[in-house]
Design goal:
By secondary structure, this protein is an alpha/beta fold. The protein has 2 domains: 242 residues, Type I PLP-dependent aspartate aminotransferase-like (Major domain) (Aspartate Aminotransferase, domain 2), CATH 3.40.640; 101 residues, Aspartate Aminotransferase, domain 1 (Alpha-Beta Complex), CATH 3.90.1150. It is 34% helix and 17% strand. The chain contains 9 helices and 16 strands. Strands 2-12-11-10-7-3-4 form a 7-stranded mixed sheet. The protein has a 3-stranded antiparallel sheet with strand order 13-14-16, with helices on one face. β3, α4 and β4 form a beta-alpha-beta unit. It is globular, with a radius of gyration of 21 Å. The protein starts with a strand and ends with a helix. Bound molecules: pyridoxal-5'-phosphate. Pyridoxal-5'-phosphate binds next to α3.
């Protein structure tokens, strides 16, 4: 069997222990005589898997009791619409940070439903390489909510702080940073994330929403886009993504065994810092992002000579370091180093980069 170091931005690597556990249970889950994939979502076996996964996520993230945890489908991209449909609650505008490719998409979708007030736009010369300084943004007191993208997956730009929006509800697209460290959930009205980066397989979307904010959707909202419908039905209004939910549960157990999010945060910071140090101390590699807001999860970098990109990628692949090609909008390389990427994998990349530079620099 061969396992490579997979630096994909998503769907991304999963912890090997999780895959082994799923493999051991694939034909016969806990003596049920069937796979989790084959179970009724309303049967007692799956209900216990679902409840345990939610309980473990609540424990790992220390989610307060006044928040609902929803296991949905449709990806973070559906949340771009669900957020305004559920949170406008009679208001007509919302505040948005524009800090990269994903926040741009969230803005485009919100514009279908309300006036979007851009409170900060960090695009310069077609690029996003920074976030606004903490405390520099003024919010509209009439805004239904403030939306931001704590980690811009494509640009590798991450907020080093949580914006203080006062009484205006704060919504975060945490697709590529959820579970990377401990956060204070009570600062947020909604946290949402597609699972395929740091939670589990694609097809599952997690939404953590303060319960007093739901139940007043915009007229005409489909039932499937109403948080209250999903909350009332324990995310089983329709058939949920059962296998993804189960695998996410295995990831939550794995996180607990690893020591929880404080420990994960320390490991992730260390992994990122050594990769950035390797980039910064070379004249061959470069990262364009302002130092104070470099992502711990997605590390884009360029080679001094873009003509060497193809050789870099093919030689890296031969060294079992795969999916390092940067997003087409940014170019160069991108190493996504989510929770499942071991420190050993980051070390192997750094060693390869130094060797490639020696031969080509
Ligand atoms: C990947 C990603 C998305 C899109 O997620 P889908 O699940 O594919 O809809 C949205 N926002 C961020 C920050 C992402 O990283």
């Amino acid at each position: 069997m061969r396992r490579v170091f997979n630096f994909s931005a998503g769907p991304a690597a999963l912890p090997q222990e999780v895959l082994e556990k799923a493999q051991a249970e694939i034909l016969d889950w806990h003596d049920a005589g069937m796979s989790v994939m084959e179970m009724s979502h309303r049967g007692k076996e799956f209900m216990s898997i679902a409840a345990q996964a939610e309980a473990d996520l609540r424990e790992v993230m220390a989610i307060p009791d006044n928040y609902k945890v929803l296991f949905l489908q449709g990806g973070a991209s559906s949340q771009f619409a669900m957020v305004p449909l559920n949170l406008l609650r009679g208001k007509t505008s919302a505040d948005y940070y524009r800090t990269g490719s994903w926040s741009k998409k969230a803005i485009a979708e919100a514009k279908r439903y309300c006036d979007v007030n851009i409170v900060a736009d960090t695009e310069t010369g077609g690029k996003f390489t920074t976030v606004p300084e903490e405390g520099s943004v003024t919010f509209n007191p009439d805004a239904a909510y403030v939306h931001y993208t704590p980690n811009e997956t494509i640009e590798g730009v991450e907020f080093p702080y949580v914006p203080d929006t006062g009484d205006v509800p704060l919504v975060a697209d945490m697709s590529s940073t959820i579970l990377s460290r401990q956060i204070d959930v009570s600062r947020f009205a909604i946290i949402y994330a597609g699972a395929q980066k740091n939670i589990g397989p694609a097809g599952l979307t997690i939404v953590i929403v303060r319960d007093d904010l739901i139940g007043d959707v915009k007229e005409g909202t489909p039932a499937m886009f109403d948080y209250a419908v999903h909350a009332k039905n324990d995310s089983m209004y329709n058939t949920p993504p059962t296998y993804g939910w189960y695998l996410a549960g295995l990831v939550f157990t794995w996180l607990k065994e690893k020591g929880g999010l404080v420990t994960m945060g320390e490991i992730n910071q260390r992994k990122a810092e050594k990769l950035y140090a390797a980039i910064d101390t070379s004249n061959f590699y470069a990262n364009p992002v302002a130092i104070h807001c470099r992502s711990w999860m997605n590390v884009p970098f360029t080679l001094a000579n873009a003509d060497l990109d193809a050789a870099f990628l093919s030689e890296a692949k031969k060294a079992d370091l795969v999916t390092l090609k940067g997003h087409r909008s940014v170019g160069g390389m991108r190493a996504s180093i989510y929770n499942a990427m071991s420190e050993e994998g980051v070390d192997a990349l750094i060693t390869f980069m130094a060797d490639f530079e020696k031969r080509n620099g």
